[in-house]
Amino acid sequence: MIIHDFSNENSVLNQFISELRDVDVQKDAMRFRKNIERIGEVLSYELSKTLNYQPYSITTPFGSKEVNLAKDKLVLCSVLRAGLPLHTGLLNYFDKAENAFISAYRNYRNNQDAFEVIVKYLAAPNLNGKTLVLTDPMLATGKTLENVLAAFKKHGEPEQIHIVSVIGSRVGVEYVKSIFPENTHLWIATIDDTLSSKGYIIPGLGDAGDLSFGLKL
User: Tens digits of per-residue pLDDT, 4-25?
Assistant: First the structure.
């Protein structure tokens, strides 16, 4: 896996991440969602540099101009529900992409630390020959992305896979690296070193889905 980790780079991402982590700022759900969306836009720009391009002739009011435009057929897939703001950020830049959505949630048994990730819903186009972009803001254990990858098997074979995340754990990143194809790209704004016994990123930022959309039962 090719990992693009922006943790140690000075950029506007630092501001967005700091506000996502701040317990006072994150009380504003609209701002929380917007910061995730903006991170998606920044990572989309970086990701776009690795796509395949070809020249196109554009007609202007005064003549024509040849420009290089991306030729990849993208499919953006978000993991519901936390992935929606990040998905919006990518769609702002890749507005011609096809879209897919998948639900995945943790099922804890008897209030123990161990859990399984359950996938119940998937809507996606055919992936053969396309570039699949998976958006999951919290890359904690990597189990969600493992199950998502398995669920997509019946939808064809993508030519390229990109993963876009806001924050991850070192353990989760290494696990995803071990199960995804070697040429997969991971685009991630920041990585924390610690994962709790319950699979939460430490210091992390909390539950991205709850902070974006409210508490769930």
Answer: 999 999 999 999 999 999 999 9
Task: Name 54's bridge partners.
Answer: 69
Judge whether 179 lies within some domain: yes
Residues listed for the chain = 217
3-state secondary structure of 202: strand
Strand, helix or coil for residue 174: helix
Report yes or no: 124 and 72 within 8 Å, Cβ to Cβ: no
- Strand 185-192 relative to strand 194-195: parallel, antiparallel, unpaired? unpaired
CATH number of the domain at 135, please. 3.40.50.2020
The C-alpha atoms of residue 213 and residue 217 are separated, in whole angstroms, by 12
Q: What is the pLDDT of residues 24-56, one digit of tens each?
A: 999 999 999 999 999 999 999 999 999 999 999
Task: Give the whole-angstrom CA distance, residue 185 versus residue 19.
Answer: 26
Whole-model pTM: value is 0.90
Answer whether residue 115 is part of any domain: yes
Listed in sequence order, the DSSP H helices in the chain are 13-21, 29-48, 84-93, 143-151, 170-179, 208-213
Bridge partners of 108, per DSSP, are 115
Domain span at 30: 2-52+68-213
The Cα 96–Cα 71 span in angstroms is 11
Strands 131-135, 74-80: pairing is parallel
